[in-house]
Amino acid sequence: MFGDEADDHDALVAAFSPDELPDGLLVADRDGRVVVFNRAATRLTGIDERAALGRDFRDVLPLRDHDGHDWWKHTDPYGGLRTRTQQTERFLQLPGGREALVTARYVRQPKRCGDVVRLVVSFRDASHRGRQERSRANLVSTVAHELRSPLTSVKGFTATLLTKWSRFTDDQKRVMLETVNADADRVTRLITELLDVSRIESGRLEVRRQVVDVIAAARKVIAGRVAAGESEDRFRLRVRDGLPEMWLDPDKIEQILGNLVENAVRHGGGTVTIVVEPLEGRVGDAQMYGAAVSVCDEGEGIPPEIVPRVFRQFWRGKRRSGTGLGLFIVKGLVEAHGGTITVRRAPGGGAEFRFILPAGAPDFA
């Protein structure tokens, strides 16, 4: 840097304030007394800067690990290993149990194996990241549980057929192979769900638009349920005229309808009714021109206090069946089309899931 550029840099450094940092910052001197406690630190701990300055850092910022141990006693910044210059980022608990990501640096003089002359601790709220970590743990647990049963079945039947093929009749072999095929389909569906979740969370979900007959898609989903053994009388399709030309992703629309109908069959009761109707007018703050689709059952419904959690990952009804990813995926697919989805109590009891989709436009990309 030369001339005015160097002067500007020096002025910028001089004007910098720790309060501008997004993370909490605590700095202690060679005696362990707090000399810097910024605004973010106050926000995270509830301790005012004036009450923190001059006090021992361990009293101002008591930290505990997840086993309840005092982290400062464990690390001993001023009396521990003289070669240590930092503590890598880790999850710790602030007073009150709030979770934070904490990292520390030891400034030594001389730099190599000298005394600690300054302790710099930065910390930030980790509640969101903690939820993400727990979500990933739940995902791993759910996947392991859902894969175990079909893979055990596949392994058992294939091993039996390979070692005792001649002992079974053709009908018995067919039953075993049909079971293996069904379990393989189940694993494939689970993998597809996981890929969908990944794409939704990363914003990489692609919508390939073409003209879609939403009514025909609903009929196809119902026919699939009937072919799988459900009674045809359990389903009712109501259609209102005037539906505009809908440019949607056909596979994703069938997936949305399939997941909602499966949810109604599994968790609801009575007749499952699908209503498809045109929509033109204001929806919230936007003008909408497209279609509205409702899927209703006649079960117990969803209590109002549960409604905000329905579209979260791993939410499952009382029966606790499935992965708990279906409605999360449905919401992601609907929103990828520019639509919205809601749930409420159906007119005849039970739950009503209603999603609206704009007519869209051809995708020539």
What's a concise summary of this model?
The chain is α+β, with helices and mostly antiparallel strands. Helix content is 40%, strand content 24%.
What does the secondary structure layout of this molecule look like, with pairings?
Blueprint: H1 4-15, E1 24-28, E2 34-37, H2 39-45, H3 49-52, H4 57-60, H5 71-75, E3 86-93, E4 99-109, E5 115-125, H6 127-164, H7 170-202, E6 210-212, H8 214-227, E7 235-239, E8 246-248, H9 250-267, E9 272-283, E10 286-296, H10 326-336, E11 340-345, E12 351-358
Parallel strand pairs: 7-9
Antiparallel strand pairs: 1-2, 1-5, 3-4, 4-5, 6-8, 9-10, 10-12, 11-12
Helix pairs in contact: 6-7, 7-10, 8-9, 9-10
| The CATH top-level class label of the largest domain | Alpha Beta
**Biggest sheet, spatial arrangement of strands:** 2-1-5-4-3
Give the SSE string.
HEEHHHHEEEHHEHEEHEEHEE
Report the CATH superfamily of the largest domain: Histidine kinase-like ATPase, C-terminal domain
Percentage of β-strand residues = 15-25%
How many domains, as an integer? 3
CATH architecture of the largest domain: 2-Layer Sandwich
Compute the average pLDDT. Answer: 85
Number of strands: 12
Question: Which spans of ≥5 residues are poorly predicted at pLDDT below 50?
Answer: none
CATH topology term of the largest domain: Heat Shock Protein 90
Structural class: alpha+beta
Can you tell me the overall shape?
elongated
Biggest sheet: strands, sense, closure? Answer: 5 strands, antiparallel
Distance between the termini: 47 Å
